[in-house]
Amino acid sequence: ELEKALSIEADHPLALSNLCGTLALQGADNALDICEQALAENPKDADVYNSIGILNGQGGQFDEAITAFLKAIDLEQEHNLAHNNLGRTYINMERFEDPTIRKEVPP
Question: Three-class SS of residue 96?
């Protein structure tokens, strides 16, 4: 259905964002291209940054994943998935005492 929506309106921000997320979870080869296209249409889409973080993590690019998750959180402070994915990435990297880890809890 997302691809059908994009065939009607190729630059529809929500459809691109949803397709980006779906392809990221599937680990699809073209996921990053779709995510970059989604960001071109809406550079403040926290969900897309979260998906990019997932893709980077899947590829073992943990520092890039952290950057993407932090960007998602900066855009949407209560983005629970980005917070969770950020924490999992730190755990995967065994960065338990890293001074860059955000320890404050949002109000």
Answer: coil
- Decide: 72 and 50 in contact? Cβ < 8 Å: yes
Distances, alpha carbon 16 to alpha carbons 56, 74, 86, in Å: 18, 21, 23
The mean pLDDT value for 79-102 works out to: 82
**Where does residue 68 rank: exposed (0-12), middle (13-18), buried (19+ CB within 10 A)?**
buried
Q: What is the pLDDT of residues 55-87, one digit of tens each?
A: 999 999 999 999 999 999 999 999 999 999 998
Alpha-carbon span 88 to 22, nearest angstrom: 19
Dist. CA 58–CA 92, nearest whole Å: 11
Model confidence at 20, pLDDT cuts 50, 70, 90, reads confident
